[in-house]
Each structure stands twice: as structure tokens, then as C-alpha cells.
Specification:
Layout lengths: L17 H9 L2 H7 L1 E4 L7 H8 L5 E3 L4 H14 L7 E4 L12 H5 L4 H16 L5 E2 L23 H16 L12 E5 L13 E2 L3 H8 L1 H8 L4 E4 L3 E2 L2 E2 L4 H11 L5 E3 L7 H5 L5 H11 L4 E2 L3 H11 L5 H17 L19 H14 L1 E5 L13 E5 L25 H8 L5 E5 L13 H10 L2 E7 L20 H9 L5 E6 L7 H4 L4 E4 L7 H10 L78 E8 L3 E2 L5 E9 L5 E11 L10 E10 L4 E8 L6 E2 L5 E2 L3 E8 L7 E6 L3
Parallel strand pairs: 1-2, 1-11, 2-3, 3-4, 5-7, 6-8, 7-10, 13-14, 13-15, 15-16, 16-17, 19-27
Antiparallel strand pairs: 8-9, 12-17, 18-20, 20-23, 21-22, 21-26, 24-25, 26-27
Helix pairs in contact: 2-13, 6-7, 6-15, 7-9, 12-13, 15-20, 16-20
The chain binds alpha-D-glucopyranose (GLC).
Length: 740
């Protein structure tokens, strides 16, 4: 390609280091454009073409190359054979582990344990960095209210506060306090922004989000990630209010740069710049390059519009060289923060970092804490192995080391998985006979030829443990479902098992909330395990046998029916809210009822308006009661902090953890506020019979929101505050925010 004479009048940017500024002043134009380009690796092979591209300075980053020696070779070319020796960013989707696989992020969110989430990210970074990966495309912090969307699996759930806290924990885990240290990698907050609001839960769909909702619900996790020092952001595929995020100047310049002062760089999603033409935002790829670059998108992932058109756009002054210098400077600065200029960038060609015992211990611990006990009728769980002769283990997910890993597993290895079956067999005394029947070839099977054997085994058992749910492929990117029942004939299998009259424990592995209402009454206990990762088996076995006590809480609402979606706890009240005294089921309506006889409220006639399980819900083997909810004062001004205290009493027979949650409601405001908003939470350990006082503090920031004029403000007036073990808590107090 003709390389135009260097047009650099390097924009002096006080924020860039001396090294970066010096590089910018020495770079030829094509080398600058090269830094804005990420190319796809060849999975362990370096073509001469790629080698030459790197040598000529046309490549700033490589994605999807994780073969250590290959990465070393690419870095050698970049640092030793190119004119300026600029190292490469090596990017990979390390979403919930690299080799040691942790629960899917939705499962990690169910732990409500920021420390564990951070540890998991740190381990993932250590393992990935050992092969030369220095950039991950995580955390995914899209608020996800729609379980039809396959990517809810990859998210941290429906709540802005929980997602913000856990997303920041992942950033800290990946990046550490100094990204240049070995084992740390750059994080990437994605997908900016509003991707989870995709219509009907179909991926890549249109999102129409009023600015007030965008600012109060979808943006807070990204703001927290920016404030936490996330090195990079990724623009979303989705069309946001008519302007696709990857060409949305308001989002990437006004919000991210001008309002938030974000200092990292923005990478596109895979070919999302090229897709602007498909969206109908641009005429051709030249326009796409111009639109995206001027909207603030610094690096192009895989498509080549920048490489093909930036030089011409500069010549025609449709793009400014100062902006090119700025983007290149941001990218070079991240490389500098990673220490890539000073390291030899030669990763050790060993697998020593993989599957360390400490890593497996953390994987088990977070898998244990991510499981949510949704039902436990008659205390069917835990199983007393000393008094049980026969456990019938049934189902397609009981012994499948691949499926338990979940979606977004590029580098996980099923052969390292410990399955539920193997863990139970190891954990139970030899006196317990554990029979195993898969019963279905896959979770989507409709053939019933394996039922007979499974039913025969179950009929002999003291307790039936069914491992059901979704294979990994049914969730994740582009894997959306219009019906979120248990797939295949699993419900039929459960019903047949129920006819045996034996205690049934349902262990559900899935990448989303499923509509369990059709079978919930057929089983005695339900343990929701999401896709728990490498150590699924030991975690679940410990919970089933009482070696561990369930403590997970739902990070997302479980609807009764798919038709209720979107259904989330922090909804607005509406002018005619649903109430039980106004609810009548369709089947109970008297014939020829007059039009207005049913009451007029926000309900569906064919299902109750409540969720099957609410946000924040999760049972324990023990029981907790909450009392003595007290406020330090009932009137606070803007400079004061409100202390909220509550006593948690473990009234059960087990020492156990409880996630204590604090919600508020701003009763009257210039823009309507949700009926509840999570503002604090604390995971506490309470010994059986003991009480624990938990104290939270609320300040003016906790009471603030974007109001009807898009101003971040707390408006004086009355608030409710609740504390409890789920968003359904009724333990309530009130206070007033007064001016002054
Ligand atoms: C994918 C995803 C994004 C991922 C990227 C690189 O399409 O949308 O989350 O990081 O491409 O694999």
C-alpha cells in the first residue's frame, strides 16, 4: 500500500508519557493506522502474510492466538524485527476462566461475593498470561433482564448495583494494582452499551432505551468499571436508539470521555464497524470507518475498514490526524501500563500455571457459593449419607464434564472437569449404592428408550437426584430461546420420576433462568447450579451431602412464564399496580363477566403477576429471621450519612452464610423511581442459634439518580428502606431527606 509521507504534527497530549509521545513523533502514518487494527490469529500458526504484516507495523493487536510459542514468535517479530519495536496486545475471551473454569458469570453473580469473583478473575488472568495473553474481553457488564437472551449467561444479572460491584471486582482481578506485573492482564468492559435490552431477547437486536433508563439502569456498571480503571471498553453490536453503539458519538465521546473522563481505549466488537453498513447507518465501509472513528472507536476488531480507508479519510480531512494520534497514544499507553515495552514478552512454554490446587479450591468455593437452593420441601436436602442406602443419579448432565463448563469456553478442558457423578461417588461412603442413568442422550432428546432403566433404578432408591437443564450450547452469544422451559422431554422424565413417590432432588445446570413452574410441585428440592465449571462436582456433592450449606441468591428474576418477560424486581409502580386482591386467574372468571368487573390492574389474566422466584432469593439449610431494623435518624440532610442496622438471627440447625440485602425506594421524584432498588449487601456468617448485627450506611450518592432533566441528583422527600434475605423483604423503615 502506498504510504503517504508522514503527516504527523504530533498532537502533544500531556496525558501521554514521554515514551509514547516520542513514539508518536517517530511513527509513519501506516504504523499509526496499524496500531488501530486488531487481526485474527491463526490458532497456533503464523502465516508469512501475518508475520510480514506485523513486521511492517500494520498490526497493533492479535486476537485468538493462545499457543505460547506462537504468541512468543509474534511478539518477537513485533519487538525485534519491526521498525519501532512496538509490542502486540494479545486478546482473548477469558470470560470465566482460562483453563480452570469458574461458574458462568451469572452463576458467579449468584454468590454475591465480590472477593471470590475477584480471586477467580485473578486466577484466570494468571493462567491466560502464562501463554502470553495480555488482554481479556471481560467483564461483560450488560444489565440483563431477559432470560430469552443467550448472553444473560455471560452477564452479572439484572441489577445495576450488584453488576457494578462484581464487574469492578473482575476488573481488579484481571488488572491488579499494577498491570505490568506478571499474571495481570488488561480488562475490557463490554458491551457498551445497552446490549441486554435487545428486543425479544434475540441477540444483536434493536435496543430502544430512554436516556433516563439508560443512565439509571444500563450505564452504572460501565461508569463503575471506568472509575475502577478498566483499561479498555468494547462497543456493542446493537443499535442503540437508532444509532448503533459502534458508531454512537454520544455514547463514546459525550458519556464515556467527556462525562466520565475515561482514559483507556475503545475496541469494536467483532466486525461491528463493518456492520454499520448492514445496520443502514452508512453507505459503505469507508463511511463506516469515518463514522466509527469520529464517534470515538479507537481500535477495529478484525474487520479492515480502518486499514483500508483511514489514510484516504485523512487526506480528505474527514478524519483528523490529531484524533489518530490520540487513539494511537491511548493504545500505546495501555501497552506501556502492561509493561510490554520493558518485558521480553516471551511467555514460559509451560502449563505450570494451569489447574493449581489453589485455583481449583477457589473454583470449588465459588461454585459452592453460586448454587441457589430454590426449594427444599421436608428438608429433603441435605442427603444423610449415613442413613441412605441407594441414591439414583439420573439425567443427561450428571456426568458430563463438557456441559458443566458452560458457554464461552475457548480454552477450558473437559477432561479436567470433576463431574457430579464422580464427586458423589467419591464423597459417599461405600455403604451408599449410587446408580447412574443418563436417561436422555442430550438435554434436547425426545427419545424415551432409556427411561425404563432409569425408572427401574429410581424405583429402588431412597432418593432420586436428577441433573437436568441446558447443554452449554443453548446459551451464550446468538443462542437465544423463545421458550425457556426445560428442553427436550426433561419435564416428562421428571413427571414419570415423580410418579414413583420417592424424594426427588433436582439439580439444574443452565445458562439462564428457566420456567420451572410446570415441574416445581413435582420435586422436593431444587438446587440451581447454573453452569458451575471445572469443580461443579465437588461443589454440588458437598451441598447435596451437607458438607456445605447453600448460600447463593438469585442475581436475576425467575418468571413463571416466558410471556411475563421482561420481569424484574426494580420495576416502576405504574398507575395501577397489580395487587393480590385485584388478581383473578383467567380460568376463574365467571362466564359473561362485564367488561370492568375484573378490576383494572397491571396483570396477565393467565398467570400471577409475581415471579416464580424473585431477585435476591435463595434458601439455606438453616433459617434466618430479621429484626430490629433501626435507623440512626429519620431525617437526614445532604451531608449526613444514615446508618441502618438490623439483627439477623440464625434460627436453624446449621452454621451458615446469609446475604443480607438493603433496598430503598424514593417515594416521590421528578422521574418515577423503582419500587425497590438494591443499594447495599453483605454476606455474613452466622452460627446456628446466634444473632448478628449488620450495619449499613447510606449517603447522598446512594439516594441520587438521573432525574427528569438528566441531572444526577438526590431529591428531598420520603424514602422507604428495607433489609432482608431477598428483594421480597417486608422489614421496612422510613426516613426523609431534607434540604440543608
Ligand atoms: C464476539 C462477542 C464479544 C467477544 C468478541 C471477540 O462476537 O460479541 O463479546 O469479546 O466477539 O470474541
Amino acid at each position: 500500500m502506498h504510504v503517504a509521507a508522514d503527516m504527523a504534527k504530533v498532537s502533544s497530549n500531556p496525558r501521554f508519557s514521554e515514551r509514547v509521545s516520542q513514539l508518536l513523533s517517530n511513527m509513519h502514518l501506516h504504523e499509526k493506522i496499524g496500531q488501530l487494527c486488531q487481526v485474527s490469529g491463526c490458532e497456533g500458526h503464523v502465516s508469512e502474510h501475518l508475520a510480514q504484516q506485523v513486521r511492517d507495523g500494520w498490526v497493533g493487536s492479535v486476537i485468538n492466538e493462545v499457543d505460547g510459542p506462537t504468541v512468543n514468535y509474534l511478539q518477537h517479530i513485533a519487538k525485534q524485527e519491526s521498525r519501532l519495536g512496538i509490542p502486540l496486545l494479545i486478546g482473548r475471551d477469558v470470560i470465566h476462566g482460562f483453563k480452570t473454569i469458574f461458574p458462568i458469570p451469572l452463576g458467579q453473580a449468584a454468590s454475591w461475593n465480590a472477593e471470590l469473583v475477584e480471586q477467580a478473575a485473578r486466577i484466570a488472568a494468571l493462567e491466560a498470561n502464562s501463554v502470553g495473553v495480555n488482554w481479556t474481553f471481560a467483564p461483560m457488564i450488560d444489565i440483563s433482564r431477559d432470560p430469552r437472551w443467550g448472553r444473560i449467561a455471560e452477564s452479572l444479572g439484572e441489577d445495576p448495583y450488584l453488576c457494578s460491584i462484581l464487574g469492578a471486582a473482575m476488573v481488579d482481578g484481571f488488572q491488579g494494582t499494577d498491570m505490568s506485573e506478571s499474571g495481570q492482564i488488561a480488562a475490557c468492559a463490554k458491551h457498551f452499551a445497552g446490549y441486554g435490552a435487545t428486543e425479544s431477547g434475540r441477540d444483536y437486536g434493536t435496543t430502544n432505551i430512554p436516556e433516563n433508563e439508560l443512565r439509571n439502569i444500563y450505564l452504572p456498571p460501565f461508569k463503575m468499571a471506568s472509575d475502577s480503571g478498566a483499561a479498555t471498553f468494547m462497543s456493542s453490536f446493537s443499535d442503540l436508539n437508532g444509532v448503533p453503539a459502534s458508531g454512537n458519538r454520544w455514547l463514546m465521546k459525550k458519556i464515556l470521555r467527556e462525562e466520565w473522563g475515561f482514559k483507556g481505549f475503545v475496541v469494536s466488537d467483532w466486525e461491528s464497524i463493518y456492520q454499520l453498513e448492514i445496520h443502514g447507518l452508512t453507505e459503505n465501509s469507508r463511511d463506516s470507518a469515518q463514522k466509527a472513528f469520529n464517534a470515538g472507536l479507537d481500535m477495529e476488531m478484525v474487520s479492515t475498514t480502518y486499514r483500508e480507508h483511514l489514510e484516504e479519510l485523512l487526506e480528505t480531512k474527514q478524519v483528523d490526524i490529531a484524533q489518530v494520534d490520540h487513539s494511537v497514544g491511548l493504545i500505546l499507553s495501555v501497552k506501556e501500563q502492561l509493561g510490554l515495552f520493558d518485558k521480553d514478552c516471551q511467555s514460559p512454554d509451560t502449563a505450570d500455571a494451569f489447574y493449581q490446587q489453589e485455583s481449583l479450591d477457589v473454583a470449588k468455593q465459588i461454585a459452592t457459593q453460586s448454587c441457589v437452593l430454590l426449594k427444599n420441601h421436608n428438608q429433603t436436602l441435605p442427603i444423610n449419607a449415613q442413613e441412605t442406602q441407594h441414591i439414583a443419579l439420573i439425567g443427561p448432565l450428571a456426568d458430563d464434564g463438557f456441559e458443566q463448563l458452560g458457554t464461552w469456553i475457548f480454552d477450558g478442558e473437559p477432561q479436567h472437569s470433576v463431574t457430579i457423578r464422580s464427586a458423589l461417588e467419591s464423597a459417599c461412603p461405600s455403604s451408599v449404592n449410587i446408580t447412574y442413568d443418563r436417561a436422555m442422550a442430550t438435554t434436547r432428546s425426545y427419545t424415551t428408550d432409556l427411561y425404563a432403566q432409569a425408572l427401574a433404578s429410581a424405583n429402588q432408591a431412597d432418593v432420586i437426584v436428577m441433573c437436568v437443564g441446558e447443554e452449554a450450547i443453548l446459551s451464550g452469544e446468538a443462542h437465544c430461546r423463545a421458550d425457556i422451559d426445560l428442553p427436550g422431554s426433561q419435564m416428562e422424565l421428571i413427571e414419570k420420576m415423580a410418579e414413583l413417590g420417592k424424594p426427588i432432588v433436582l439439580v439444574v445446570l443452565a445458562g439462564r433462568p428457566l420456567t420451572l413452574e410446570p415441574i416445581i410441585e413435582k420435586v422436593d428440592s431444587v438446587l440451581y447450579a447454573w453452569h458451575p465449571g471445572t469443580m461443579a462436582g465437588p461443589a454440588i456433592a458437598d451441598l447435596l451431602l451437607g458438607e456445605a450449606v447453600p448460600s447463593g441468591k438469585l442475581p436475576v428474576t425467575f418468571p413463571r412464564k416466558v410471556g411475563q418477560i421482561p420481569l424484574y424486581y426494580n420495576q416502576k409502580n405504574s398507575g395501577k399496580p397489580a395487587t393480590n386482591d385485584q388478581y383473578i386467574h383467567m380460568n376463574d372468571i365467571p362466564p359473561r363477566s362485564p367488561q370492568t368487573s375484573l378490576g383494572m390492574a397491571a396483570i396477565h389474566l393467565d398467570t400471577h403477576f409475581s415471579p416464580l422466584f424473585e431477585f435476591g432469593f435463595g434458601l439455606s439449610y438453616s433459617q434466618f429471621t430479621y429484626s430490629q431494623l433501626t435507623l440512626s435518624q429519620h431525617h437526614i440532610n445532604r451531608s449526613e450519612t444514615l446508618e441502618v442496622a438490623v439483627t439477623v438471627h440464625n434460627t436453624g440447625d446449621w452454621d451458615a452464610d446469609e446475604v443480607v440485602q438493603l433496598y430503598i425506594r424514593d417515594l416521590v421524584a421528578s422521574a418515577t423511581r423503582p419500587v425497590k432498588e438494591l443499594k447495599q449487601f453483605s454476606r455474613v456468617h452466622v452460627k446456628r442459634g446466634e444473632h448478628k448485627k449488620v450495619i449499613f450506611s447510606l449517603n447522598i450518592n446512594d439516594l441520587s439518580f438521573y432525574n427528569d432533566e438528566m441531572q444526577w441528583a438526590a431529591e428531598s422527600g420520603h424514602f422507604h428502606v428495607w433489609v432482608g434475605g431477598s428483594s421480597a423483604t417486608t422489614l421496612q423503615q422510613g426516613f426523609e431527606l431534607i434540604d440543608g
